[in-house]
Design brief:
The protein is mainly beta. The chain has a domain of about 70 residues: RNA polymerase II/Efflux pump adaptor protein, barrel-sandwich hybrid domain (OB fold (Dihydrolipoamide Acetyltransferase, E2P), Beta Barrel), CATH 2.40.50.100. The protein contains 1 helix and 10 strands; from the N terminus they run E-E-H-E-E-E-E-E-E-E-E. The longest helix has 4 residues.
Length: about 110
C-alpha cells in the first residue's frame, strides 16, 4: 500500500434491544486468525519442550487418566494423561525429541 492511498476503516453493526449500533473494527482485529475449537483427539504440546518418556505405542487401548508420555518444559516434568477412553492411532514424536509449542504429539481415535 502506498502512502497516497487512504486507509478505509472497516465498520460492523450490531443490534441491542432494537437499537442498531455501528463501530469501527481495528485492522489488527479484522485481520486476526479466527478461533477454532481444538480437536480433543489431537494431543499437542502446550509449551516448547522435550519428550522424556513414552508410555504407549500405536494401537494401544487407553483408559481416561492412563499415562501417555512424560514431557519436560521449563525444567518441569509434566505427565500427559489420556483425556478419555481411546485407542492410540498415531504417535508423531519419539523419546528425546524436542517439540515446539502446539506440535502434535499423539493422535487418539
Amino acid at each position: 500500500m502506498s502512502n497516497t492511498e487512504e486507509l478505509k476503516p472497516e465498520y460492523t453493526s450490531f443490534v441491542v434491544d432494537e437499537t442498531t449500533y455501528e463501530t469501527i473494527v481495528p485492522a489488527k482485529i479484522a485481520n486476526r486468525k479466527a478461533w477454532e475449537r481444538p480437536n480433543p483427539n489431537m494431543i499437542t504440546s502446550f509449551l516448547p519442550g522435550t519428550i522424556l518418556e513414552m508410555y504407549v505405542k500405536e494401537g494401544d487401548v487407553v483408559k481416561a487418566g492412563d499415562k501417555l508420555l512424560l514431557f519436560e518444559a521449563m525444567k518441569m516434568h509434566t505427565l500427559v494423561n489420556a483425556p478419555f477412553d481411546a485407542t492410540v492411532k498415531a504417535i508423531v514424536v519419539s523419546e528425546g525429541g524436542k517439540v515446539p509449542k502446539g506440535e502434535l504429539l499423539i493422535e487418539l481415535k
